[in-house]
Amino acid sequence: MGKGVVLVVDDEAPIRDILGFYLKRAGYQVLMAGNGVQALDEMSRLQPDLIISDLRMPEMAGDELCKRVKGAPETQDTYFIIVSALDGTASRIGGLSIGADDMISKPFHAQEVLAKVDSAFRLIGMQKEIKRQNRELSAFQGRVEAELALAARLQMGLLPSLPGEIRGAKYTHRYLPAEGIGGDIYTIAPLEDGLIGLMIADVSGHGVSAALISAMVKTSFENHIRLSRDPLAWALGMNRDLCRSTLDDQFATAWLGCLNPTTHVLTHVVAGHPPPIRVRQGSRGGLHQPELLQGKGFMLGLDESLPFSLHEGQVLPGDRLVLYTDGLVEVEREDRSMLGDEGLLKLCAELPETADEAADFLVGRARELNAPVPFHDDVTLVVFDRFS
Amino acid sequence: MLNIQTRQEGSASVVSIQGKVNFEVTAQLRDVIRDTVTTHQPKLLVINLEGVSFIDSSGLGLLVAARNSVDKSGGKLHLCTLPAPVKKTFDQTNLTNYFSIFATEQDALRGA
User: Fold this and answer.
1) Could you write out the DSSP letters of every residue in A128-161?
2) Are residues B56 and A296, on separate chains, in Cβ contact within 8 Å?
3) Average pLDDT over residues A263-275
4) Distance (Å) from the alpha carbon of B92 to chain A's nearest alpha carbon
């Protein structure tokens, strides 16, 4: 194999011969053609890396040949040098504007042509290398994206299936991860004695590591609700689990609740998470006075020795609970303001009737109020309605 | 935009932060705090949050990690001058009781 394939196109045989002589001596494989038509014919047999073409030729001139070569996807990367008797900047720009990569003016020195060809081949070599690396990167990126898409589907599988119904209540969610997969998770699970366990959590950070921890949070929750009916015990247990399995600055905010549908008592623990909003008799929509459930506490996974506190409230038949993660309300708008818990509370004052309509309304309004700034953190919203 | 300044006050290091502390800047801030702790091994690390307009959960995580690393090297972490929005975040997460928080930088340095 030589250094590469050069196609010399010129209607004057002596010029072809002299260029051919020098190029062959320099180690190139040389093809010859007397005009554009012949050149295309040659190219159908062997694809050159570089074409040196005269501009003025019978049958098909150099500019037309250049347009065709640069216009066809399979030949567009061929390096094209136009040789022209029309000297000066105007013809130079003309040649480059039709897509040629370089120009040589007649009369030329064979050594000058050779130097240009050598330098062109260095460029061609680099371009090939870049393309090869680009292909590898694209392939790698494709694999990573496919993996992430699969992980995202798996993560969706961790969420409760919709429409959700449990012991005299129905619920729905909107889950919008920031990067395909996210660190938000929630679950609603039946407990012994007809109780309902509720959990929503937001793992610090987003992306793959947050998603892994969110799966751990869910597993930990499911383990602890089997052992006890006390959200305080759940919080302590989950805190211990997370402290032992995460890095120093990784943690999860969470809200854990246990609802007794018979006594309507909700016991709950706020672990660094925005408390849910309760809308009294809100499950039928309309105008109401929503309120934030009271309580505060440390997030999970900071320190094993931290205490948590249990709060108690009431969720009556017909009441609506709105659970959410801070990604919904903490978007800094162009005027630097944020929707915040208070803003969301106001939006909850008049919600549509069904849980699905209410969820769409809240996400839609939050988006409108933040526009044009998009959500940039994981966003999870759960609307939980007790039947009247 | 995050602006971080560090200085030494005797055996104490002071890190002053200005701007929004969120996911995008925590790596930068983590490096500064780690460098300060390893270079000076301060008895007292004061983080001044006066210029912080907003702190998200990854920022809180960073402060917790800072407290842990200072604890391990036998030092103390004091936070000071929390603006109202930051204080609210701390209250909500009970972190007000987790960190030693002071009204002014002088108080934080004195440890009073």
Assistant:
1) HHHHHHHHHHHHHHHHHHHHHHHHHHHHHTTSPP
2) no
3) 95
4) 5
What residue type is assigned to position B55 of the chain? I
- CB pairs below 8 Å between A and B: how many? 61
* CB within 8 Å: A249 and B30: yes
ipTM over 0.90: no
Contacts with A206 from chain B: Cβ below 8 Å: 23
* CATH 3.40.50.2300 domain span(s) along chain A: 5-132
Q: Do B64 and A302 touch (CB under 8 A)?
A: yes
Chain B touched by A377 (CB under 8 Å): yes
CB-closest option in B23, B57, B94 to A296: B94
> Residue A348 in contact with residue A277, Cβ under 8 Å?
yes
Domain B2-110 grouped into CATH 3.30.750.24: yes
> Looking at domain A157-386, what is its CATH homologous superfamily?
PPM-type phosphatase domain (3.60.40.10)
**Are the Cβ atoms of A249 and B23 closer than 8 angstroms?**
no
Measured between CB atoms, does A25 come within 8 Å of chain B? no
Superfamily of domain covering A5-132:
Response regulator (3.40.50.2300)
Q: Which residue has the tokens 């990784």?
A: A250
CA A104-A105-A108 angle, to 5 degrees, is 90
Paired residues of B54 in beta bridges: B20
CA atoms of A122 and A134, how far apart (whole Å)? 18
Predicted TM-score of the model (pTM): 0.74
Residues B58-93: tens digit of each pLDDT:
788 889 888 888 888 889 999 999 999 899 888 888
Which two three-digit tokens encode residue B1?
Answer: 């935009």
A182 interfacial to chain B (CB closer than 8 Å)? no
What's the pLDDT tens digit per position in A184-236? 999 999 999 999 999 999 998 778 888 999 999 999 999 999 999 999 999 99
pLDDT tens-digit map of A104-150: 888 888 888 999 999 999 999 998 899 999 999 999 999 999 998 99
B73 in contact with A, Cβ within 8 Å: no
